[in-house]
Amino acid sequence: MIESLITSKTRIKLLVKFFSNARNRGYLRGLAEEFGESTNSVRIELNRLSNAGLLNWKTEGKTKSYQANENHPLYLDIKNIVRKYLGFDTLIDQVVQGLGSVDKAIISGDYAEGKDTGTIELTIIAEKINEDYLKFLINKTEEKINRKLKVKILETEPEGGLPGLLVYEQSSDDL
Question: Does residue 77 register a pLDDT over 80?
Answer without folding.
Answer: yes
